[in-house]
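Please go through this chain and its backbone structure tokens and walk me through the local backbone shapes. Keep your notes short.
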Amino acid sequence: MSEIVLSIRDLTVNYYTRQGVVNALDGVELDVYQGEILAIVGESGCGKSTLARSIARILPSNAVIEKGSIILNLGSGNTVDLVRLSEDELVKIRGKIVSMIFQDPSAALSPVHKVKKQVTDHVSGEKRRVEKIAQEILKKLMMPAPHMILEKYPHELSGGMKQRIVIAASLITRPRIIIADEPTTALDVTVQAQILKMLSRLREELETTIILITHNLAVAAEIADRIAVMYAGHVVEVADVFSLFERPLHPYTKGLLKSIPKPHVDEEIEPIRGEPPSLADPPPGCRFHPRCPYVMDVCMRIKPRLEERAPGRLVACHLEER
């Protein structure tokens, strides 16, 4: 395993709303390794995007990081806790060392500025040299006539091309970490496959780390090295892709895999019973216990810790403690 580039410890994030306090992240623990693609998966509302935005420190105004740390490895023995940085200090990190790809390229791009400005605006240096770098990245993203694309406005491009522009803007500074938040959700299946292949190839070419946020396990299986499964604000299991699909440990992970349709397999889909809990009033103990077929008394009282049960395999489940 390579060096840890990002280490998250006891991260707790609350949203303060008119309806009450929503505990979106509750003591999240996670390590990300240099050069890997780590997929973070789970149902809608489980905290995936909140975790991504916490790393990039672009949470909405009603969100508060209550406690915890996000330690970024800058290399050469230098580290920094992103939670404790001021906004001025974050400007030097965000978009340069840590970049983000958003799921809706139309919302991420300004309709009144040309592509050239949006790809190169956050890069310092001589104008002609920066534009040449932008053209080279667009070539890597298989964009035809990059010099012409840079002169267009977003509305002149297709959805797939706009997503490539968003990716180009995130790559131009050669960041240490790229956070891709559902980057293919708004695209058709063919373009989605192309974007995933590009991300995988660029990870190797640029030697960067990618954190992929997705609700789609098939997407995670396509390009990820490891998968972290989230449920109701907790990370409940972490494993390499093969091990997770071959032998899931957490009951929630097992339920997710059983609920996936399998082509050419005459097997009935088994949906996970019940609904995810309200994070404004989560159940005590293990938050999955109201839906778990293996629930025990201890599950209702004590929150299980995320611990390594086998080399590289972490799970938060009282069943695995026995």
